[in-house]
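$ fold --in a.seq
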Amino acid sequence: MIMPMHNNDDALAAFIDPDSVPRPVLAVGATLITDTDGMEMEVHHHRKAQLIYMARGVLTCEVSRGLWIVPPQCAVWIPGGTSHSVKGVGAIDVYCLFVEPASAPTLPDACCTVSVSPLLRELLLRCAGFPTMYPARGAESRLVKVLLDELAAAPVEKLHLPMPSDGGLRRIADAMAADPSDRATVDAWAKRIGVSERTLSRLVLQETGMSFGRWRQQIHIILALQWLSQGASVQSVATDLGYESASSFVVMFRKALGASPARYMAQRLVGRKPK
């Protein structure tokens, strides 16, 4: 079910079309309590750009050539007109900011995950309390400008999984996600889809910009963040991902995201960027 948390006239509850609101931004917030199958919004798009910020829980956002994970205190930026789908599981506190493209010309023109600073978070929560048709001039409009400036300065996180268009590579991605503990070699994966090891390595680099090993590692990071955010222990995540020990998993995680899993998640819960 969806329970509106913010926005004085319940814009989210009314499912208002954000493209129809003649304001630079529309901010709404909601608490979603999903069942075991989770919540899914099928592929859709809107003219306005969108920021999806997670205060609690984890969301994944997929576009045609990529998957972005949004852990607590992070947000995904989706440029206007971009077709995307969204999935989430469990208890989720989410805020959506719809931005008129002309109001923020310096913001990215491609999807990305950004870290949300305490200031940006408070601005977003404050704007979510504005009426849909807040005054075009006044305190609300000034705060909206500050919000957009802070958003433009938000650092990008490495939480993107490139999704290939090649059918064979998509089968590999699905198989690795279904059984991430499978440590088959590149040659073994190549044989499974009927190509040479050299061809597979070339295809992965061509379609994702990553080596096969780096691409598989990114899949592991995406899965690890999902499981850790749902309360799984570091040991169980390491085991499920096929690591020989928790320490080897922690080393990989720290190299990729700059902090140990425990430190990364703890700082996400208090809204601080890991160091």
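$ fold --in b.seq
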Amino acid sequence: MSAGRPRRIAVIPGDGIGREVIAEAVRVLAKADRQYELGLEFEEGLAGGAAIDAVGHPIPPKTVELCRRSDAILLGACGGPKWDRGPRELRPEQALFTLRKTFGLYANLRPAIVPPVLLAASPLRREIVEGADLLIVRELTGGLYFGAQSRTGEREHAAALDTLPYSAAEVRRVVRKACEIARGRPRRKVTSVDKANVLETSRLWREVATEVAREFSDLTVEHMLVDNCALQLVYNPKQFDVIVTENMFGDILSDEAAGVMGSLGLMPSASLGDRPPGLFEPVHGTAPDIAGKGIANPLAAILTTALLLRYGLGQEAPAAAIEAAVLQALQDGCRTADLAGGRPALGTAAMTDAVLARLH
């Protein structure tokens, strides 16, 4: 691969522990680059609170242009109490929304895997979670979070309205994306989640999902109501392979899946459109209470680099190698404080060193 054009990775560290764990993730990507001759180039940009402090805006045009000429974006968590005030358009999270909208990133992928070595970290019984390996595909650019909003009146007469719009085209593209991904997984099963017994939007969702399923006769495609899915995630998570759902449902269910795993510190994510660049980020927050202490868990960020290689650059071998190195480090007893259960723990850099030592 190095004989071709370089692959630029836009590195946006974000705020709080984002800066710490993204730096460690770049160390892992750099070693994978050397071992597999990937031809990667890294260029850093500002976004979030750091950008507000530096230039007065959560995502300056220079950062957007960096992302536009890149093959993939590696993003750290943005925000924190320091920037909680101010108009909506100048809050740190607008950086993420801007990137999603600018690059048409409509499908968010969040894998939830419970490896045997971390069964004790899950709050659920061993027999319930052992072997769980699912992927949630969340529609990311439509629905309630992007619908029209209004507010009228004051005090006891106050009223607010949020709208939940979806078009057939928006539903079709994300369900198709989920089905395409399921074809590459051993179980080849898709669960489409909606609230079709109540919401007209969900009735449209189910109709379109059913149409798309006919294009994938080699898959098992089923429908499930969102309240039942929330129950089944904790009652029998092993039944799921790929879950595809709308924006708000996906937001909630993916965090629930993280609870099944036992730690947000292990959750990577990828946000994809129909063309590069994709956006790759760990799903945990900026954790300002531990920022700068060198104790944050870097594994979600490191696992995010595996998604970047797999879905962003089409490089399966180094992606699998990174995931294997993380698993081996855990099997060898390496833990950060959030997973150590009171036992001796490694710091952020030392945990990364443990992964790098096992990256072959």
